Amino acid sequence: QVQPVESGGGLVQAGGSLRLSCTASGRTFSTLDMGWFRQAPGKEREFVASIFWNGGKTYADSVKGRFTISRDIAKKTVYLEMNSLKPEDTAVYYCSIGISRPTWGQGTQVTVSS
Asked: Which of 5, 4, 18 is nearest to 91 (CA)?
């Protein structure tokens, strides 16, 4: 089973930017729906953004206009460009293969300081 591997988290000041990457090895990458979710301490995991096999994209209302999801099929990688970061964006960010029945990556910490 293909498992995604995230990278790119870190510490950033409010208003700053980060780019997360998620690589999903395997020959079927172009047919995959991929997503980003996040989980803050004491809260449930929540949807952030998704990119479907046909290139369609969806976003949570809380990140619309600030975050952009994209993919590079040749590199089998999905990206989450995060701009205008807020302290409330602090969470562990998880990449998923699939949206309704996801296979999770190990997560990467994003911390936004005020």
From this structure: 18
- Cβ-Cβ contacts under 8 Å for 5 (sequence gap 6 or more): 22, 23, 24, 95, 105, 106
Stretch 73-86: mean pLDDT: 96
Give the SS3 label for residue 31: helix
Beta strands, E only, 1-114: 5-7, 10-13, 18-23, 34-39, 46-51, 57-59, 67-72, 77-82, 91-97, 103-104, 108-113
Strand pairing report for 103-104 and 77-82? unpaired
Helix intervals (H) in the chain: none
Taking 90 as the threshold, does the pLDDT of residue 34 lie above it?
A: yes
